[in-house]
Design a protein that fits this description.
Length: 376
């Protein structure tokens, strides 16, 4: 969301949000851009972790299978009261109750996750300035502390399914770039990015869009190194993209590829901005076209209520009603090995094809704005 604001503005205001009153009303502007309020909501969640635990945590989840698979109104998942083991399930004093519905927080410290959170907080600090200067300052201060803390000790590594896995250097690079931009070129992050150039070269397909955003704060040698990496990457990329008729990376795992396609569209836009003589606009347009219907199985848009035909039965809080959440993006077509593409159009309960996820929705917002920009 920060990238959308910094690159495209996105000053739309259609919703009233009062965090203190826990009150939201759509179709009622409140003079604060909705994107700023979305970022604020995420920032409050991250800052709470640092205030309570001193680091980012892997996750928060429902405590029971019944609550996890709940199919009614999402607000009825909890009675809104703090659980007390001293009370029976039917007891309540208005503040505490005997209903064991409080979510569980998994509080392990992992370096990758800490860098990831620091990246988000550093980025948020930039766009919150002028709206909430106190929160902006806390975001940047927290991100800087995370950087200092993680570089004074050996990394804490932990991996469980899709939590805190992958390459540590990816997250350190992303944190360095966001902090570099937030501090307008602080030497500590500039030096570390130069040291990370070999890792950036090795991981260029995953870090290219991030790395080029550091160019305005780095020396000419850094830009030249990235240009060399890009030329090699583009040759390999074009060769791989020619293997399918859509011209985008297609996910081959157990999760549909909408997020991959949207991320590809956005990354190629950032590369086009940095090196327009090397990267054209067609990559971005193909990535968004794929999400909006140019994909195997059908021509249905993965983004509910966007496009002439879109996914109107999705896996969200209202999945049992066989309906959708406007603006939500599903994972989309899954390739069943060895080569069978599937997208169930009328069955909402296959999460790997039909589940709404927050980061894919925001990925589409960025990709869609990028496509609008290059189309002009």
């Amino acid at each position: 969301m920060t990238l959308v604001l910094e690159n495209f503005g996105l000053d739309w205001d259609d919703t009233t949000v009062d965090e203190r009153a826990r009150y939201v009303e759509i179709r009622k502007p409140d003079s604060v851009p909705d994107a700023i309020q979305q970022i604020t909501h995420g920032v409050l969640y991250l800052l709470a972790q640092y205030r309570l635990f001193g680091h980012a945590i892997p996750g928060v989840i429902e405590p029971t299978l019944q609550e996890y698979t709940h199919l009614g109104d999402a607000a009825s998942k909890t009675d809104g009261k703090i659980y007390s083991e001293k009370m029976s399930p039917l007891e309540s004093d208005g503040v505490y109750s005997g209903v064991p519905d409080d979510r569980w927080a998994f509080t392990s410290h992992t370096t990758r996750l800490n860098y990831d959170a620091a990246s988000s907080l550093a980025a948020a600090s930039r766009v919150l300035r002028g709206y909430d200067d106190k929160m902006s300052a806390e975001c940047l201060h927290t991100a800087e502390n995370v950087w200092d803390h993680e570089h004074k000790q050996a990394p804490a590594l932990f991996h469980s399914f899709n939590t805190a896995g992958g390459d540590l250097r990816d997250d350190e690079t992303k944190a360095a770039v966001e902090l570099l931009i937030a501090t307008k070129g602080a030497d500590v992050y500039r030096r570390r990015l130069n040291e990370l150039l070999p890792a950036i070269q090795e991981r260029f397909p995953f870090l290219a869009g991030t790395a080029v955003r550091a160019i305005p704060f780095m020396n000419l040698e850094f830009k030249a190194a990235l240009k060399s990496m890009l030329l090699t990457y583009k040759t390999n990329l074009d060769e791989n993209l020619a293997k399918n008729p859509y011209g985008v990376p297609i996910a081959m795992g157990t999760w549909g590829g909408s997020g991959l396609a949207a991320g590809f569209a956005s990354q190629m836009y950032l590369l086009h901005q940095a090196f327009p003589d090397i990267v054209g606009t067609d990559y971005t347009l193909r990535g968004v076209d794929y999400v909006l219907g140019t994909h195997p199985v059908s021509n249905v848009s993965y983004v509910s209520a966007i496009g002439t035909q879109s996914k109107l039965i999705g896996y969200g809080n209202n999945r049992a009603d066989y309906t959708f959440i406007p603006g939500g993006m599903i994972p989309g077509v899954t390739i069943l090995q060895p080569d069978y593409p599937e997208l169930k159009s009328d069955w909402p309960f296959l999460w790997y094809e039909n589940e709404y996820v927050v980061d894919t929705a925001t990925a589409f917002i960025l990709a869609a704005n990028a496509a609008n920009a290059v189309a002009k």
